[in-house]
């Protein structure tokens, strides 16, 4: 069986993560479950790995990697940006900006499921 790993890097301070990262976690858990239902019969298993980051690595927070490559590597039109995040600020005690993805004039605080799914399907040739 072919394995595809989705790694999710996110800030965690005293067991808590920011709201954006929390939303990404919910999205990824559901997406991985759906992909496994769809792809397992075709010999592909998708796993989710969480990498917890401290405040010193906040610039990497809410990053999704697929088989070790950032999501944006599979779609060159995606630009990485950032925007103010009060939730991260509450966790770190200072003003913070969170990672965003920008595509087609839109900015996404949470990586869109269709981009993640598309990259997994491309790599696994299972969708």
How is this structure best summarized?
This protein is α+β, with helices and mostly antiparallel strands and 127 residues long. The protein is 31% helix and 33% strand.
Overview of this protein structure:
There is one protein chain. This protein is an alpha+beta fold and 127 residues long. The chain has a single domain, classed as Glutaredoxin. The chain is 31% helix and 33% strand. The strands form 2 sheets. It has a 4-stranded mixed sheet, with helices on one face. It has a 3-stranded antiparallel sheet with strand order 5-6-7. A hairpin with a 2-residue loop joins strand 3 and strand 4. Helix 1 runs parallel beside helix 3. It is globular and about 45 Å long. The model has no long low-confidence stretch (mean pLDDT 95).
The CATH architecture can be given as: 3-Layer(aba) Sandwich
Spatial arrangement of strands, main beta sheet:
2-1-3-4
- Provide the CATH top-level class: Alpha Beta
Derived structural class: alpha+beta
What proportion of the residues is helical, as a percent range?
A: 25-40%
Overall mean pLDDT stands at 95
Helix tally equals 3
Low-confidence stretches: none
Query: Which descriptor suits the 3D outline?
Result: globular
Name the beta content range: 25-35%
CATH topology: Glutaredoxin
């Amino acid at each position: 069986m072919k394995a595809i790993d989705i790694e999710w890097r996110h800030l965690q301070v005293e067991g808590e993560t920011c709201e954006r990262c929390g939303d990404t976690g919910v999205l990824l858990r559901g997406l991985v479950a759906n992909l496994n239902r769809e792809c397992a019969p075709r010999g592909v298993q998708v796993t989710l790995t969480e990498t917890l980051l401290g405040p010193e690595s906040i610039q990497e927070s809410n990053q999704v990697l697929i088989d070790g490559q950032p999501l944006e590597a599979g779609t060159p039109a995606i630009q990485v940006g950032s925007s103010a995040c009060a939730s991260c600020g509450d966790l770190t005690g200072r003003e913070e900006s969170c990672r965003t993805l920008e595509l087609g004039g839109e900015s996404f605080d949470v990586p869109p499921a269709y981009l993640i799914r598309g990259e997994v399907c491309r790599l696994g040739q299972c969708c």
